[in-house]
Every structure is written in C-alpha cells, then in structure tokens.
Amino acid sequence: MITKNSLYKIVGTLAVSAALTSCTDKFEELNTNPNGITDREVNATVDVNDLILNNLKTGQRNIYVFNPSWQYQVQQNLNADMYAGYMMSPNPYQSNNNNLTYGLVAGWNETAFNVGYDNAMKPLTVAEDSTRGKVDRRDTHAMAKILKVEALHRISDIYGPIIYTKYMKPNPDGSVDYDTQEAAYNAFFEDLNTAIEILTDLSGTEPSAAFKSADLVYGGNYAKWLKFANTLRLRLAIRISGVAPDKAKTEGEAALANSGGVLDTNDDNFLVDTETAVHPLNVINNDWGDVRLGAPLGAIMSGYDDPRLPYYALPATDADVAGQYVGIRQGINIDAKSRYENYSKLVTFGNKIQLMVAAEAWFLKAEAALKGWSGAGTASTNYETGIRRSFEQYGVAAALASYLADDESTSSEYKDPDAITEEQNDIKVGDPNLSTITIKWEDGASAEAKLERIITQKWIAMFPEGQEAWSEFRRTGYPKLYPVIVNNSGGKITGFIKRLPFAQSEYTTNKFAVDRIITTMGGPDTGNTPLWWDVE
C-alpha cells in the first residue's frame, strides 16, 4: 500500500488536487513535482494557503469517510460499530461468513487502513509539513497535528502497529517500517504536546483567517481546539493506563493541569459538519436496510428505562417484538435479511459526525479520579456530570434526578423469538454475559464495580461512535457484551475479536516491514492477538 515509489508521489498529487479549484496557474509546476513541496511553492502565499486549507478540511472530513456511504460501511460500520454492541446487520453477507461471524473478509479488513492513509494521513502530513517552522502558520500546524493524532490513533486501535514516525521514509529495500503501538502512542503524545503548547500560547488572541477557514468543527476557536486536544490526550492516557501506568499518569495529569481545560459542555463537542453530504448511517439504515440496533445496547438501555433510547433507535415493527426496542445479536445464524430487518432501526441522524462529546471527558475524569490522578476531582461527581451532559445533549435532563437515584434497574434479558434454533440467541438472567450493573453511584462499591459503572454509562453516551466504544470494551471488558454463536474463524479467534489483521495489500507491497513488525506483537496477525494496551 505505502511503497517507496508511491511515497514519492504523495505530496505532489495532493498539491495538484488541493490547488485545482483556485491555483490553475501553478498546475503544471505542481504536477511535475514528484518529491513534494519546493521552497518556491511554500513561499507562494496564495498557493500554499489553499494547499493547507484544502488538506486540513480533507483530513477532518475523512477521520472516517462519510461520503460515499459504502466506504464508511466497510471502514467502520461492519467492524467497530458492531463489535462495540451498538449495531448489527440483518444482512447475512457471503452466506453469513463475514466479519460479524469472524470469517474475516480481506476487503473489509483493509478499508480502514486505506482510508486512514489515503484520506487522512496524506493530506494532514502535507498540511503539517507546509506549516512547520512558520510563525504565522503555527495555529494551522497545531490543527494538523491534533487531527493526525485523532485519525491515526483510531487506525492503531484497529490494527495495533502502524506507520507513523516512519511515514514517507522508505528503506533502501522499498519497505516502510511500522511503529509498535507503544512507539506510536509515544509519538501521539509528543505531537499533542506540541500542539497544546502552541494553542496555549495563542490563548486569548484572534485566530488567523486561515485557521477559521480550515475549521469545520468549531468555526475557528482556539479555546475549543485546546480543550479537544487536552481531552484527546486524556483519552489516550487512560487507554494505556493498564500497560504503562506511569506514562499514563504523566500524560493524563498534564492534560488535566493545562489551563485550557478539557471538554466541559455540549457546546464543546467535536462534531464534523458533513455540509451537503448525508450522514452515512442514514443511507445504510434507511436506504439499504443493512444496519439495525445492537442487542446489548437495546437490552441495557431498555432495562434502565433510559430516556435517551428513543433518540438512538425506533421501536421494532416485527410482529413478534412490535413496539419494543429490540436489537440483533452479533454472530448468530442468519439465513435471510428478512428474518431481522424489522427489528429496531436507528434514528435518522443530523449532518454532524460525532467524534467526541463532553460526556466522554467527564467519564475520563471519573476514571482518572479512581486512579488517583492529580486534578481529576472526585469520581462520583464526574460520573454524574457525565450522565448529565449526555442527558442535556438529547434534551432529557428533566429525567436526570430519578435516573441517577436508580439503584435497582439493570439490563433486560435478551430474547430473540425469531432465532432459527429456539432460544439459542437468548441472554437470560444468570448468564455471565448479562450486565447486572446498576446506575446509582455507590461510594462503597469495589473499584471494579465503579469502573464497570463508569464505562457502561460512557458507552451509552458515546453512541454512535463505535470505534471508541470497541476500544474501551477491549481495554476494560465493559460493558458486558454477547459473544458470537457462529464463529467462522477456523479456530483463529477464541473469544471476542481483539483486532483486525493488517491490510492484505501490505503483504504484497510492504512485506518486509509487515514481517518485521509481527515479531513484536506477541502473536500472529489474526483477530485473536491483543493490542499492546489490551491487558485486561
């Protein structure tokens, strides 16, 4: 995928595409530059500004691809969204031998890799390199670094090792080396630290016109970008806290100590405007009928009588469960789409892609408080504020007090009346995979029960962002999800799936590097090998 020859073409190609709409007089020069941006081009203000802005916008729009919808479907929906327990497809793709039953499909496995590098890493690297060392462009340099970490940590959390610090640095044999996940995370923290220092220094000043023009999230607001960067740093610190507790504490406390703070209210939510494009889940759900509510989410929220559920999904119309919020269990025997297509559909989403919300920041602080990190506050207050922010996001704050006081409700049982084999798909009381955690905070509960409570509510609040939810499930084991019944991995995956295998194209174009990095992973390139931070 990322070969020596293709690397030489990346920046020149991007420069052409970025400049087409406004810089046609530079077309020939850009088109014939195989190695990147020359000093003369960097000093051509109009051209470079357009190059930077277009690539920053491209990077934001492609953290995950929302247009075309089919690409998002295989990039995230048919993997992370469903592994997270949020959603499931009624469609038995490839005779039910697909990623949802662990019969991993090469084309599905590699889409996140291809999109991550072609549509995010490339343009963001161009933007970053074009602004490096330029005092008047340091704000857009910070934006590029933050976006690069946001995009590539997701790729790392799918595959583990990624090409990050060695990107565009081919070896003599043409291969491009992967970073271990630990090395990649260390680089993420370095990039975030640089960006945070820049934005902290710029606090209280007027954002540049270029920054405002490039910003598809906050409309050109340094303070909000600083909050996002700090929260992203805290997210990644919590992510590695099981495997590298000292490093996690250092990075997490730095995020909490920064004067800019972390996401606080829903005005701070990181939502990318799709502009005229339709939200991909609307196409997949409404037009194609290829996604429905996931069984665990439906059961847990129904059991809690959660007032957010009608803002996530619609009641089922299937005759056996009509009027109820009933999802489909992942990894079951499905013979035809018609069997489950009338289970609960998702709601129709607006034109904003949700990548981080204030509720998540409060739950991150709740877990940081459990760990005793300085500046985290108290776990109970943070936990309840996280739920409050989520209720406010969906306009159901009137129900907050009774919800927070509920010390009895737990997940509903899951019953599937349409199962091919009767009761095979059910999760009943007493099943170890049925969540029994209640809502109300209990100071006297065990540390593990407190963690489960935090992560379960965090999982509910982050919907529909399945990539982050899947990562947190692998890290903590919470909330309790349902294992697959049909396992088509041929014995390669023995529990819940841990990762996706590397892109098959990498074995063709970058085999030496792939072979080298696999020796560092502690297991083969299969869905059963846990990521570096997955130590629970």
Keywords:
Serine Threonine Protein Phosphatase 5, Tetratricopeptide repeat, disordered N terminus, two-stranded antiparallel sheet, 536 residues, globular, mainly alpha, 22 helices
Question: What is the element layout, followed by pairings?
Answer:
Elements: H1 4-19, H2 27-31, H3 39-42, H4 45-61, H5 69-77, H6 80-83, E1 87-88, H7 93-96, H8 106-131, H9 138-159, H10 181-202, H11 209-214, H12 222-239, H13 245-257, E2 270-273, H14 280-287, E3 292-293, H15 295-303, E4 352-356, H16 358-370, H17 379-393, H18 400-404, H19 447-462, H20 466-476, H21 504-509, H22 511-518
Antiparallel strand pairs: 1-3, 2-4
Helix pairs in contact: 1-4, 4-8, 4-9, 5-8, 5-14, 8-9, 9-10, 9-12, 10-12, 12-13, 12-16, 16-17, 16-19, 17-19, 19-20
